[in-house]
Amino acid sequence: MAVFDFNADFRAAVNMKNASSVIYKAGSIPGTALQAAADVLRSQLKQEQKLFGIGLETWRIWNSASNAVLPNTSATDDLGFIVGAFTSASHVIRSYDVKTVGATNLYARNQYILPPEYDDGESISLRVYAQMVTTAADVSCTLDLVAYQHDNEAGIGSDLVSTSATSINTLAGAYYDFLVTPTGLTAGDTLDLRLDVAPNDGAGGTAVIAEIGFTGMLLDIRG
């Protein structure tokens, strides 16, 4: 009577190395079961949410001089890019000291290209770490974002941001997310972004400075 070697005979029965294709039941296949160069479409990969950092040094003057980087010192309606001393301080974007200035707006602009991994039409948010330095404004200080899609013909559409201006008038730093309406957006599209810091102070006490320590894009991606 023949003896059935389960391990050996079962492996022979399911050996698919010469198969041109294999159809699996609904579900997922662990990555360890795939070859290094597996022919898998990006649309078949699991969707994840990832944060892509935007270097603070890439933000620029917002208006007709937007081919220029932010000044070393914030002035007029421009935020400033402050270079931290290497090994002892990190770079930040700051307002000038706005105590007693009243209501004003300070801006920075960026062009962000949605990466190849972006899952078309899915969630997009700009994430900003912000706070006040030394003293909070006696009235208010808000952070806002506007975002427009390039049409590749020197034109833009309407503002895509659905999140309202948010208070950052606190000495405790925190992350703030600004949701971008993703309808119709695809990998490779360019977004024209403008940050708007709006302090309002009239107390005339110690320094009132708004600070941004991080910017990044939170995206739904595949791959």
Structure characterization notes:
With 223 residues, the protein is mostly beta strands. The protein has a single domain (46-222), classed as Sandwich (Jelly Rolls), CATH 2.60.120.260. Helices cover 4% and strands 36% of the residues. It has one helix spanning 6-13; strands spanning 47-53, 80-82, 92-94, 102-103, 106-113, 124-134, 140-149, 166-167, 174-180, 190-201, 208-222. Strands 1, 2, 3, 6, 9 and 11 form a six-stranded antiparallel β-sheet that branches. The protein is elongated and about 95 Å long. It starts with 5 loop residues before the first helix and ends with a strand.
CATH architectural designation: Sandwich
In this structure, how is the largest beta sheet organized?
6 strands, antiparallel
Give me the Rg, rounded: 25 Å
Query: Looking at the structure, what is the overall shape?
Result: elongated
In DSSP terms, counting alpha (H) and pi (I) runs of 4 or more, how many helices? 1
Give the class-level CATH name. Answer: Mainly Beta
Unreliable parts: none
How would you state the average pLDDT, rounded?
A: 88
Keywords:
6-stranded antiparallel beta sheet; 1 helix; Jelly Rolls; 11 strands; mainly beta
Topology:
Elements: H1 6-13, E1 47-53, E2 80-82, E3 92-94, E4 102-103, E5 106-113, E6 124-134, E7 140-149, E8 166-167, E9 174-180, E10 190-201, E11 208-222
Antiparallel strand pairs: 1-11, 2-3, 3-11, 4-10, 5-10, 6-9, 6-11, 7-8, 7-10
